[in-house]
Amino acid sequence: MNLLSNKWILLVILSLTWGSSFILIKQSLVSYSPMEVGALRLTIAGLVLIYFGIRNFKYIPKKLMPWVVVGGCMGNFIPMFLFPIAQQKVSSSMAGILDSLVPVFVLIFGYLLFGIRSRWTQVLGAMIGFMGAIILIGNNGDGSSSDLFHSFLIVVATIFYGLNGLIVGRYLSGIPSFKLSSVVFSIWLAPALLILGFTGFFAEFRATPEQLKGLGYVSILALVGTAAAMILFYKLIQQTSAIFASVVTYFMPVVAVFWGILDGEKLTLIHVLGAILILLGVYLIQLKPRNKPISINRKKIAH
To answer: How far apart are alpha carbons 178 and 193 in whole angstroms?
Structure first.
């Protein structure tokens, strides 16, 4: 537990778990539809945490409950469906690279909605990051155009992740991460079960080897890449900030690309260029200004 108090160890664990989630989604889609993958992911995580979630509702102040619901919807519900839908047409490697846009949207919506002032280097970083995303979305790397709609779904998911990080950092930082996560997944368990029922999963499940294999991938995704990872992510935000927590996007693409290459996906120069631009943009967003010496009679300029 002492190790989990170290922000860098948390960052590494999150990078490995979330970086591996894209290949797990890809493998899950072999057996199940995108809606089934998303609903199963939420259902399994919710069933594991609901016992604790029910007990932890009392620790959530009533005035903060709307933020718990909204933040959970943006960070733990909607993206669970957007990624599998997108990965019908988008490779797991590209999904991992595009997911690196999260800090860009933390910056943008932090300024627009939360009054967080931006430095010029951060604005430049956001512009460079968007250039990288446009390059990736506009070309598959083999001369053909990529699927714009499905690529854009990943961008939408990163917008929701960014908003969720800002909400947690601003309004929910005082709630212990496990209590917060267990309540969030308990809230969204019922909607997930409802969606799972509408997909026909319960009627069509026959416990075939293929279905069980897919269920194994989804279970790992739900327990490690969703429930455990979100607990650690909330903990990291509360210990640091939404901006620092989004540094995980530096390392996630590396893990995602590694798994993608092992699975036979091709990494082209276009992918490399887009990834470099996105990560350069993230670096500029994270870059701290140098403290300049000032005289006693001058006021320090706020950044």
So the answer is: 22
